[in-house]
Amino acid sequence: MPELPEVEVTRRGIAAPLTGQTVTVVTVRQPRLRWPITPQLASILPGQTLLDVDRRAKYLLLRFARGTVILHLGMSGSLRVLDSSIKPEKHDHLDISFGDRVLRLRDPRRFGAVLWHEGEDETHPLLSGLGPEPLADRFTGAGLHAALARRQCAIKLAIMDSSVVVGVGNIYASESLFRARIRPGTAARRLSRSQCERLRDEIRATLGDALAAGGSTLRDFLHADGEPGYFQQSYFVYGRDGQPCRICGTPVRMRRLGARSTFFCPACQR
DNA sequence: CCACGCTCCTGCGCGC
DNA sequence: TGCGCGCAGGAGCGTG
Known about the structure:
Low-confidence stretches: none
Shape: elongated
Order of helices and strands: HEHEEEEEEEHHHHEE
Largest sheet: 4 strands, antiparallel
Number of strands: 10
Number of domains: 2
Oligomer: single chain
């Protein structure tokens, strides 16, 4: 599932070949994603030039003169830049064509979203109220500590809450907490200031490492086959229930937290 | 304000 | 090249 590093790699992968290109045709084959693809997209976009591709949380923001395409990949979404002659396959729901190249969205589970928005980002309900970007300087240990002060929920749920910090999904939540040596079930408000500093640093390091690993897959965005922007890392704890901790050898444990699989080392994490 | 459960959807793994 | 079932998962949203 695309987490923030994958989304950022996707952003770079599509921005490079498409920025400055002008939309010729929009083809919607299946509008029913998480919300319907904005119906007017096919009439609005042609003739407009892609000015830039930004990212906020896991939302990709395709900038045009008249507005922004807000695009989320959900759980199974992927974007590729292909030659227009390549035929769409099952689950290829949307094409934004730029002459002989096409930006193609594939999303088998259809948890993604493609919405047209005119106006400032902050005026859109999906973008207003988002917390800090984890890789930006504005995300600080002190700020995290303050955000957690009244939260009784498990720290893992808190860092997956987009009003606290954006872009930390299920995998990297477990990984960051392992690296910060904090139990996922700890009440958020119980974290000390120094633990928050540590957690902040490890969230950044975890996402940063994944981003670095994904950078090498950029070329895949211009290929027809292979999964673009996806990269299998070797995780410390995620998906490793019962296997030895890579640091101390103690079997990794799995538990449910907010209906999500959560992994931790009972010895390394207190 | 906060917490929690529901919901969307399909591929996959499992048991038979 | 089986079939039917149940789960996983991002994140918005409604409810208490």
